[in-house]
Design goal:
alpha/beta, binds manganese (II) ion, Nucleotide-diphossugar_trans, glycosyltransferase, Spore Coat Polysaccharide Biosynthesis Protein SpsA, Chain A, transmembrane helix, cell wall biogenesis/degradation, binds uridine-5'-diphosphate-glucose, cellulose synthase (UDP-forming) activity
Length: 740
């Protein structure tokens, strides 16, 4: 009886599917009318066309086409959303569970505080899984002796922490999060004297551990990691028991420190390169069939994820073609209103569910359980050993691991380090001439290695699954200031467009190898940085035409007026309904609109430019890790829902310049309309700047009203450059308006 019980269930929300599809039909019909209206204008007799307006009409029409194109791509997500429930209690006995390797990446001890990285490490070591079946590998791209020494300290603390978690079935096994929750009165259900005494003792051990980390940092304060970090031989060390056995023998997961070789002359391919080294090194040590990948700031908030993921990986109906189980990224430091939309609500609560109903969600960098075999490409068709060596490299140990993959028998795992082999596998030269990064492992060529790799897996027939249990399993560090948000966005949008412009273009590769709907989803992800084009255009052209008295939209009495009113209203309402139905508020809806506008005109634009420069070989790829150090002042502003505008002028100038244009055109436009009296022709052109100004009011507030540190400091450079930019834009468009 037990065996027939399913490990997971799928739920389809029929009314959601129905309303989504109805909305698609209505909105699409309206878009067709819009295109018809615009085309009629262009095919009109030039004499009947109102004089000089061809150029702005073309610009606005082009923007509408791009917006409609991205909208159509986005409907793939809305077609068949599903959700899932898992039943981990139906899994086989512990002794029948497979091995799991955990990969944790860290890159920079100054931007990624060592104590936090160690907390992530401890939370992963304490997963609810047989410890002898768990192997944790830390990749340190900083090559920092601080990280290595801190891991030795973490190992010592783990000997206290893990038994404590197991004994009292602690839910949150990240010590930092656990102690801060219990300080705030949350967390424990156990009130026994024994528990409280143990907890006090563990708390003291944790404080001592924190001091040890500080001491380690001081001891190594002379290190020039920044320089050394990019030029050093591979370092691999198993973190083990040293004989001073303070407490009785506790079983801990196997822990390995890996810092791959770095040479300035060799491209290291950022995180994808780091993960591929862990893939190989772990293959000759534990070779677990499933791998959990974590960013250094994403700790396990609950210990159940491994078993939940196995509900899919061990389900005979799903497992054969299943490449990975993705958990949504959630964050521990998000304020109630989340003014920067750092939780990416739309992605993790709407889009991924939509893809889950097709071939599966996109790989999202962290918090996923990957089947090891799925990243080995077509190694099975390599008939000879020579072919295989050209494919995956020359390590005999690694080739052997391919042949004996998926052995859940933990006894075969040698807990000694095959040193020569692992050093070879972590060296710069190992990948030269092989298919690593091209067909094997995480793929190179973009800083969004996750989307690229997930897309290629889906193309090759693999599926994925979204597992979003009510209790968040992983919590990361969300960006809580504008600067980090925009820098991270620029990197992502460059990486995404890289994929869209490469030979992996989802609109070409996708439909041949997966469903059209799934390809649309990937295309939406890779092309949405193009939002910058229509948003820039619609923030300038209709406004300038308003002042000049050039109508670009049908007048109020025209039947087509309703089409032009319906389309934005339909899009805004759909967005609002999605926000409300995923637990958001009206305020959240406005915030998301604002962040969409701000990032479209800044980071989307810079991301697109970076991608183009890279395409033409004028710029090298770079990956600036997101800052994870908390700053008190910044946190205070964030908690008060106030924007922290302390970012570079590169981001501020476009925002300020476009607002100057919108405000002055709005005032000029009102004045003109009042004196001429053609408000019915200009109605939509009046609404547009008004909407932009209202949504972006925090920028105006930051510029003129606020006096705190986070305001937009009106430096001469900012004021002059914004005004120059606004003037250049205005005069260029005006001169073209008159000519074309
Ligand atoms: O050369 C590098 C650069 C980064 N990392 C690690 O990669 C992870 C992600 O970097 P982070 O700076 O946190 O970037 P985010 O923008 O926050 O990360 C998101 O976007 C990345 C793709 O750009 C994905 O890889 C991540 O999983 C996803 O959370 C971190 O653990 C880093 O330590 C490396 O190991 N080596
Ligand atoms: Mn991150």
């Amino acid at each position: 009886m037990e065996e027939t019980l399913s490990l997971s269930l799928i739920h389809v929300n029929n009314s959601l599917v129905f309303t989504n599809r109805l909305h698609i039909i209505l909105h699409f019909t309206a878009l067709c009318f819009l295109v018809y209206y615009r085309l009629c204008f262009f095919f009109q007799n030039p004499q009947t066309r109102r004089g000089t307006t061809l150029f702005p009409w073309l610009l606005v029409f082009a923007s509408e086409i791009i917006l409609s194109f991205i909208w159509i791509l986005g409907q793939g997500f809305r077609w068949h959303p599903i959700s899932r429930t898992v039943f981990p209690e139906r899994l086989p006995q512990d002794d029948k569970l497979p091995l799991i390797d955990v990969f944790i990446c860290t890159a920079d001890p100054t931007k990624e505080p060592t104590l936090d990285v160690m907390n992530t490490l401890l939370s992963a070591m304490a997963l609810d899984y047989p410890p002898e079946k768990l192997h944790v590998y830390v990749s340190d791209d900083g090559g920092s002796s601080v990280t290595l020494s801190a891991m030795r300290e973490a190992w010592k603390f783990a000997k206290w922490w893990i038994p404590f978690c197991m004994r009292y079935r602690i839910e949150c096994r990240c010590p930092k999060a656990y102690f801060s929750a219990s300080e705030n009165g949350g967390g424990d259900s156990d009130g026994s004297i024994e528990f409280l005494a143990d907890k006090k003792m563990i708390k003291e051990k944790y404080e001592a551990f924190k001091e040890d980390i500080e001491r380690v940092k001081e001891d190594h304060s002379g290190d020039t990691t920044g320089i050394k970090g990019q030029n050093h031989p591979p370092i691999i060390e198993v973190i083990q028991e040293n004989s001073s056995s303070e407490i009785e023998q506790v079983k801990l997961p196997f822990l390995v420190y890996v810092s791959r070789e770095k040479k300035p002359s060799h491209p290291h391919h950022f995180k994808a390169g780091a993960l591929n080294v862990l893939y190989r090194v772990s293959a000759v040590i534990s070779n677990a069939p499933y791998i959990l990948v974590l960013d250094c700031d994403m700790f396990c908030n609950a210990p159940a994820s491994a078993r939940q993921a196995l509900c899919f990986h061990l389900d005979p109906k799903i497992s054969l073609s299943l490449a990975f189980v993705q958990f949504p990224q959630k964050y521990h430091n998000i304020s109630k209103n989340d003014i920067y939309d750092s939780q990416h609500r739309s992605a993790y609560k709407v889009l991924w569910q939509g893809m889950d109903g097709l071939r599966g969600p996109v790989l999202s960098g962290t918090g996923f359980y990957m089947k090891r075999e799925s990243l080995y490409g077509n190694y099975k068709i390599k008939a000879t050993d020579l072919e295989l060596r050209q494919y995956v490299g020359t390590s005999n140990g690694f080739i052997k691991s391919l042949k004996q993959h998926c052995t859940p028998d933990s006894d075969t795992v040698g807990h000694t380090l095959p040193e020569e082999e692992t050093l070879l596998l972590a060296s710069c030269n190992y990948e030269i001439g092989t298919e690593w990064g091209k067909e094997v492992g995480f793929l190179y060529g973009t800083v969004c290695e996750d989307v690229h790799t997930g897309f290629t897996l889906n193309c090759n027939g693999w599926n994925s699954v979204l597992c979003d249990p009510p209790q968040p399993q992983f919590l990361g560090n969300g960006t809580t200031n504008l600067n980090d948000l925009l820098i991270q966005g620029t990197r992502w949008y460059c990486g995404l467009l890289d994929i869209g412009l490469s030979r992996f273009c989802p609109l070409i590769c996708g439909p041949l190898r997966m469903s059209l709907l799934q390809s649309l989803c990937y295309a939406q992800l890779t092309y949405f940085p193009l939002y910058c084009l229509p948003l820039w255009c619609l923030a300038i052209v209709p406004q300038l035409c308003l002042v000049d008295g050039i109508p670009l939209y049908p007048k109020v009495s025209d039947p087509f007026f309703f089409i032009f009113l319906f389309i934005p209203l339909s899009a805004l309402t759909k967005h609002l309904v999605e926000v409300l139905s995923t637990g958001g508020t009206i305020r959240k809806w406005i915030i998301e609109q604002r962040i969409w506008m701000i990032s479209s005109i800044t980071s989307h634009l810079y991301g697109c430019l970076d991608a183009l420069l890279k395409k033409f070989g004028l710029k090298e790829a770079s990956f600036l890790p997101t800052n994870k150090v908390e700053d008190d002042e910044q946190t205070r502003l964030y908690q008060m829902d106030k924007f922290d505008f302390r970012t570079s002028n590169m981001f501020l100038v476009p925002m300020v310049a476009l607002l100057i244009i919108n405000i002055s055109c709005f005032i000029g436009g009102i004045y003109r309309v009042l004196s001429v009296g053609d408000w019915d022709k200009m109605f939509i052109q009046l609404l547009l700047p008004a909407y932009i100004i209202v949504v972006n009011s925090p920028i105006i507030e930051g510029l003129v009203i606020r006096k705190d540190v986070g305001r937009i400091y009106p430096s001469t450079a900012l004021v002059v450059t914004s005004n120059i930019l606004a003037t250049i834009i205005t005069s260029t468009i005006y001169s073209l308006l008159r000519k074309v």
